[in-house]
Amino acid sequence: MLQEESDLSLIIAQIVQKLKGSNLYSQLERQAWASLQRPEIKLESLKEDIKEFFKISGWEKKLQNAVYSELSVFPLPSHPAAPPEHLKEPLVYMRKAQGSWEKRILKSLNSMCTELSIPLARKRPVGEQKELLNKWNEMGTDEPDLSLFRPVYAPKDFLEVLINLRNPNYENGDSLSFRTHLGLIQVPLKVKDIPELGALGRSASNKVINKKQNMGPRKQDPNQREGEFPRNDSKEKFQDKGCTTGLKHNNPRLEQEKECFVELGLNIGQLGIDDSTQVPPELFENEHVRIGQKVLAEQDSAAAQQYIRQGSPTALRAELWALILNISSQPEDVLYYEQLKTNVIQHDLLVDSLIYKDVKLTASNDDYYFVFEDYLYQVLLCFSRDTSVLSHFAFNSASPPKSYIRGKLGLEEYAVFYPPNGVIPFHGFSMYVAPLCFLYHEPSKLYQIFREMYVRFFFRLHSISSHPSGIVSLCLLFETLLQTYLPQLFYHLREIGAQPLRISFKWMVRAFSGYLATDQLLLLWDRILGYNSLEILAVLAAAVFAFRAVNLMEVTSLAAAEAVLADLSTLKVMPLLQIFLFATVT
Amino acid sequence: MSRPKNQNYKGHGLSKGKEREQRASIRFKTTLMNTLMDVLRHRPGWVEVKDEGEWDFYWCDVSWLRENFDHTYMDEHVRISHFRNHYELTRKNYMVKNLKRFRKQLEREAGKLEAAKCDFFPKTFEMPCEYHLFVEEFRKNPGITWIMKPVARSQGKGIFLFRRLKDIVDWRKDTRSSDDQKDDIPVENYVAQRYIENPYLIGGRKFDLRVYVLVMSYIPLRAWLYRDGFARFSNTRFTLNSIDDQYVHLTNVAVQKTSPDYHPKKGCKWTLQRFRQYLASKHGPEAVETLFRDIDNIFVKSLQSVQKVIISDKHCFELYGYDILIDQDLKPWLLEVNASPSLTASSQEDYELKTCLLEDTLHVVDMEARSLRADSPCW
């Protein structure tokens, strides 16, 4: 008890500390001063009256949202004596692996520099600055010669590193047993250990389930979904029970997953399923939209995050995401973005060429996203100069690379972070931004949303850590789910040299961007925001394999397996997830 | 059936007595070697005929039609893919004339409000006959941009923009044959149209919509609208500064293909579904519904305007490609109607769209039922 209390007060203290430096704090102060003019504020009950005022005027809500936002990002409380590296990554061998991976990346970057004799950074001559300023809105029309540049690394290079990760303190033994993990990842991480999320999901879902009981049997036509599933018998099973008790299964893992993702249950309406044309909108969609509008009117972050677990209506999505990420475009934010833009104009970084190359190779060639090419440059170039991103390295196992002024190697006074935001883009990085262009059109808002998404979620997809949403855990989760529920398929694929992770890795690293149709991708990212976790990526990857299992059982090579899974653009995400989580029977 | 004596008459679809019962396949002919050919060849029971063979179904090009339609006899069930005088709708100057006439008629019959529904084409003047009317309008609105389009050409050829009368005075001098020469070369007709200066932009780029409408007959008017279509993007960023840059303003894929930026893999097209999703996330679903209703209105009114003019031959059907431009107020404008929309695919997605489009077209035309005779096997 005492420990919990002291943990709580520690967290509170830290959040207060964090918020004191923020803009919101000074705004609240100003508001408090201004409120003294108001007649209802009396000197005797100053504190209560001001609190009341804040409540009525909506400032309390803003503060709540800010606190909620901090909580979402805040790492779990640790021992007060733990050194800062532990906050980044508690396991030593993971830290070491990340360190050596970073060394490799930097070596690659440096050698490219020396080969091409291009400085890491240089100041642009005035003429070039003017030209860039003129072309700012159409940088996509530029065709610089990028043939000599190569991406610093691609996801498959990263996969090789992860495959070779080993815990030196863990002895697996050579004998094969039913416990042997068949997959590529061989580290003993506990997957899916998010007790808070499970509890959050469960208590909220009770309210939802009670409500839905009254809505009658769900209209389902199995033929309308992609593929055919024998749904009818499972429908009876889940009809009146809550989905957590629906399928009693021996394996605790699926139970844990189902607990986590309770709101995706079969009894509960989902956007991505229950808004299809065959389902009359009165059954779910209209009400859901109405609730969404209410949530937006209340401007409540926590409510929005809960709401979005069932998917967001297209028209409300942009605002809902902004609310959940606690982004409101203040003049200061626009100014900050403009400042970053000035930095881009004034200095040219080597990283810029990498960004150009990545955009040209990936987003520009994409059927959906080629239109947004210009926005991608405007966001990514500014992103690489944004030093505020450095703060996220406190809880990222990665560390920003350092560069030294020429001739002063090793001298800390002459060290700078390179690139300024500490993030080196890899092949496919621009795909994190591309789907957001669908929702946000104003560059500074688009930028803010992307930055927040990066420091909350995306960074975990390319750094080695033991975090449950980290890529290592996601890979392990994927392989474990597959091995547990589709052992025949897994074994078959392994035998033909087509380890499933080799195919699904690229999907997860990019959070499925560029692989799914845009509307489906946005529904998936809704759930990432709603559950504040990336685990759903691993679940979806496993669900895709389960869906195409029949075809996969017939292939005899890695290339053939790749071909079966090459095109995901016709998949519907929500039915797949539901089937896999709640209706798969082994 | 006795053969007509006139040598020029070619009979098609004629069968000699018993042959009719035994004919179990549909003979098609086409000169297009693209998606259409694939679709026709894959259709069960359809057989290709070449050269002078008799056919039941001909997807012809308009030049053949012009030369041969009047001399060709077609049996009851035979179908051909164009109307004799489709140019009433598809040539820019005729379309404008018909629309203007229809609008006046509507105003007389149903009032100004109803007539206003025809205001989906920008102010257009036929050149050279309406030159003086054009100059009047030009002078009323100084500084705006106009676009000059040849009436009968396609793929963006011959189109240019101008802001000053001087520009077209020069052009007139160039194109007009001098008085010394004989006027053997016919003067090409152009239309001058008000350029839409505030197009809706996505990603800073201009685009137009291509939507397909299949007309089975004009009297009665029976038309089908294909659910899918695409938005064609200009490769470069929109600006009014460089009105000489064809690549910015003309969104025809044919023109974009020649742009130095064009990469064939890119395709520079979005399906209509994707476009709808994008608009819905930006403006809300109601705005999108309204927009598409307005676009439907364009189809209806434009077809109604030529209904009485086009010779409605029961053998004819036509697949039109409508080009629609959206402006920043989400108002759709009709740019033109194509009688022979391109059926060549620019990407895999495009191929699938056109294949499905053509298959559905053939379903609607339903040659299989027409060839049916009481005594031949049903299929």
TrEMBL record, chain B:
Record GO terms (molecular function): ATP binding; ligase activity
Region (Disordered): 1-21
Name of a matching Pfam family: TTL
Keyword annotations: ATP-binding, Ligase, Nucleotide-binding
TM spans (from-to): none
Family from the record: Belongs to the tubulin--tyrosine ligase family.
Designated name of the protein: Tubulin--tyrosine ligase-like protein 9
Lineage: Eukaryota, Metazoa, Chordata, Craniata, Vertebrata
Gene: TTLL9
